[in-house]
UniProtKB/TrEMBL annotation:
InterPro entries: DGC-Regulatory_Protein (IPR052163), GGDEF_dom (IPR000160), Nucleotide_cyclase (IPR029787), Rev_trsase/Diguanyl_cyclase (IPR043128). It holds the Pfam family GGDEF. CDD domains: GGDEF. The chain crosses the membrane at residues 35-56, 72-94, 106-125, 146-168, 174-200, 220-239. It comes from Bowmanella denitrificans. The lineage of its organism: Bacteria, Pseudomonadati, Pseudomonadota, Gammaproteobacteria, Alteromonadales. Residues 281-416 form the GGDEF domain. Keywords: Membrane, Transmembrane, Transmembrane helix. This is GGDEF domain-containing protein. The keyword Electron transport does not apply. Gene3D superfamilies: 3.30.70.270. SMART domains: GGDEF. It comes from the Bacteria.
């Protein structure tokens, strides 16, 4: 109930609370409890849920979804708070319902709810939800991903075969392996299954009945051990996945231009050299430069110039194929490597880029419009030929210089190719 209210906030209203309370009561009544007993037990449940909800409903969605290491602190705090709230009711109800002491009532109910929250709540908080505006959750399965789950299965078989109080620790190493490989959701499911199996194994072994006088202490220890076993893999999975997210962000930042999102110079050159080194296909290289860009900065300011650069980069990217590489070489200059591309196709893509920029003004955030144009230089290396990236960039840059000399807003081929201008257009005036 708590997980549902947190994941679907619209249900956390008086209707949701009444529906949840009715469902809890019906479950107890159908399983043999009387009205008074069911009322007392479920009042503890509802108070526990309320206490935990007060804590978790105030955290951000990122923390609530267990995407940050601090999430585990909030999870433990909510488990402890919800368990303590249930323990207060148990302290009063235990003498009446079970002829036990108030202290044992508080202790038993508190640790029971802590185990429940720690073992079950992470599953609901991390369960993937397919929304209407998203494509859902897709996990690419690899053959090696089955090994951690197989290790959990083998450890559980060993736990069932050997038994004893130490059996609760058998799956720990396998679960920690799962935490390093899987996301939090499957790790939480496997952890819950192992915790339940461990509790059943210890219960069947009769361990806590073998030592007279310490039944409550043994039961407390067993449940607390189950909570520790449940939280450790989940905690490691949260930290591991958070680290992986940070590494992915760092990798993206190190390879992309912060302003335009295009590849930065170093990453572009590295990928381009890898493509050219294959020598299996013909490739084209484009050099693209915005015409009179300094005038845009001088007249409208550098913030406007940044908006223009971002929009031009987006239009260039839209003209490319998935296998092509775009990079920002510096300032207003971009470069493109066209993978597996004949000369004629290179010219067509270059001209498509030029027209995509020139035919539609750039609309700024304040609704002003600025017309910009580009000049493009094209170089080419055929299949089997050996030309370095530096040489191809120099050829394309020379062709770009010729397009500038020819009046801008046009595409030129390198001298080693057909030097015919492609669809040259007159320079467009800069206007706002």
């Amino acid at each position: 109930m708590l997980g549902f209210m947190l994941r679907v906030p619209g249900t956390a209203n008086w209707r949701g609370w009444l529906t949840g309370a009715a469902a809890l009561m019906m479950a107890d009544l159908l399983t043999g409890s009387g009205w008074i007993q069911a009322g007392i037990l479920n009042s503890a449940n509802l108070i526990s849920i309320w206490a935990a909800y007060l804590i978790l409903s105030r955290v951000s969605d990122h923390v609530l979804g267990l995407h940050h290491p601090i999430s585990i602190l909030y999870l433990l705090l909510a488990a402890a708070g919800g368990g303590a709230a249930a323990g207060l009711v148990g302290m009063l109800a235990n003498p009446y319902l079970f002829d036990g002491s108030m202290l044992s009532g508080f202790t038993f109910w508190w640790i029971t709810e802590v185990v429940n929250y720690v073992a079950i709540l992470p599953i609901f908080l991390t369960a993937p939800i397919k929304r209407e505006d998203s494509a859902g959750c897709h996990w690419q399965f690899r053959k090696q991903d089955i090994l951690p789950a197989l290790a959990v299965l083998l450890s559980c078989l060993a736990m069932l075969t050997i038994g004893g109080p130490g059996a609760v620790a058998f799956p720990v190493l396998a679960l920690l392996w799962c935490a390093l490989v899987y996301s939090v959701f499957p790790t939480a499911i496997l952890t819950l299954l192992c915790s339940l199996l461990a509790l059943l194994t210890l219960s069947d072994s009769g361990f806590h009945h073998n030592v007279s006088g310490i039944d409550d202490a043994a039961l407390f220890s067993i449940r607390l051990g189950a909570a520790v076993v449940a939280i450790a893999p989940v905690m490691l999975s949260i930290v591991t996945n958070h680290r992986n997210e940070l590494m992915a962000q760092l990798r993206y930042v190190s390879m992309h231009d912060a302003l335009t999102g295009a590849g930065n110079r170093a990453a572009f050159c590295q990928e381009a050299e890898r493509i050219l080194a294959q020598n299996q296909f013909p490739h084209g290289v484009l050099m693209i430069d915005l015409d009179h860009f300094k005038q845009v900065n001088d007249r409208f300011g550098h913030a406007t110039g940044d908006q223009v650069l971002c929009e031009v980069a987006r239009r260039i990217q839209n003209c490319l194929r998935p296998t092509d590489q775009l990079g920002r070489m510096g300032g207003e200059e971009f470069a493109v490597v066209l993978n597996d591309c004949q000369v004629q196709v290179c010219k067509e893509i270059a001209e498509r880029i030029r027209l995509a920029v020139a035919t539609q003004p750039v609309t700024l955030s304040d609704s002003r419009q600025i017309s910009v144009t580009t000049s493009v230089g094209v170089s080419f290396v055929d299949k089997g030929q050996s030309k370095s990236l530096e040489f191809l960039l120099a050829e394309a840059d020379g062709a770009l210089y010729q397009s500038k000399e020819s009046g801008r807003n046009c595409t030129r081929l390198a001298d080693t190719l057909d030097n015919t201008q492609v669809n040259e257009a007159k320079p467009a005036k800069q206007n706002a």
